[in-house]
Write a structure and sequence with these properties.
The protein is of the alpha/beta class and 235 residues long. Helices cover 26% and strands 31% of the residues. The protein has nine helices and eleven strands. Strand 3, helix 4 and strand 4 (83-87) form a beta-alpha-beta unit. The relative contact order is 0.17.
């Protein structure tokens, strides 16, 4: 049986631990029959011959920049059927200045609200808020999130700008707070899929660090999402 091929592209801001977080899923992919190639630069996307062999791209590149050739190669690969998947800033806070990339992914991180000022301690946990990931009606029937109930996390809660091409499987709601400028609760997508040509895109906004990705619910969603996005997966 021919193995499927996964490409892991990782790098960017070190705070999201791109090596450690992607390594969480390497054994899972290998156990599901994938040969894995790992690249530290998005320029691999510009190599049309290499991309034609890839069934699934797993990207963890926060911020950074991408060349015109690379983003065209990524879009062309997904258009032709290569799956594109990722979590947290590694997919929705990548290449902020490139509108072609943002259109492909369907969402852009803009904020993770912090604790109230009197609770700020000046460390990385200042933006770790207790919140709920709420499975939508669509999500309750979708193979990625079926059987998963709403679940609680204490980590960064992403506020995401998005469009309605996304099929939203789960949301999270930022409450109105007296110390913040918004005056009513704001609901953002937390898990979504997106069809792009012959390809599939999967995004989960939880995943700040390996600990979050090892949460049973988050890990299950990401593992299912990787398989769902991959080329050749039946509907």
């Amino acid at each position: 049986m021919t193995s499927r091929r996964a490409l892991i592209v990782r790098g960017g801001w070190a705070g999201h631990q791109p090596v450690e977080t992607t390594d969480v899923f390497v054994p899972f992919l290998e156990g599901n029959g994938y040969d894995i190639r790992i690249e530290e630069s998005s320029e691999i996307y510009a190599d049309a011959a290499a991309m034609a062999e890839i069934d699934l791209i797993v990207q963890s590149v926060t911020m950074s920049e991408i060349s015109g050739a690379a983003v065209r190669g990524l879009r062309d690969a997904v258009l032709a059927g290569t799956g594109f998947a990722g979590w947290h800033g590694g997919i929705v806070d990548s290449y902020r200045a490139n509108s072609d990339y943002l259109q492909l992914v369907g969402g852009q991180f803009v904020k993770h609200p912090a604790k109230a000022q009197d609770q700020i301690r000046g460390d990385g946990a200042d933006s770790f808020l207790p919140h709920t990931i709420d499975i939508t009606d669509l999500g309750r029937d979708h193979e990625i999130t079926r059987g998963i109930d709403d679940f609680a996390l204490t980590t960064e809660q992403y506020w995401v700008l998005h469009d309605d091409l996304n099929d939203v499987l789960a949301t999270t709601t930022h409450p109105a707070r007296p110390d913040q400028p918004w005056h009513r609760p704001v609901t953002s997508p937390a898990i979504w899929t997106r069809l792009w040509g012959a390809g599939r895109v999967f995004v989960a906004t939880p995943g700040h660090d390996p600990e979050v990705l090892r949460d049973a619910n988050v890990r299950t969603v990401v593992e299912r999402g990787l398989l769902w996005a991959s080329r050749g997966t039946s509907t």
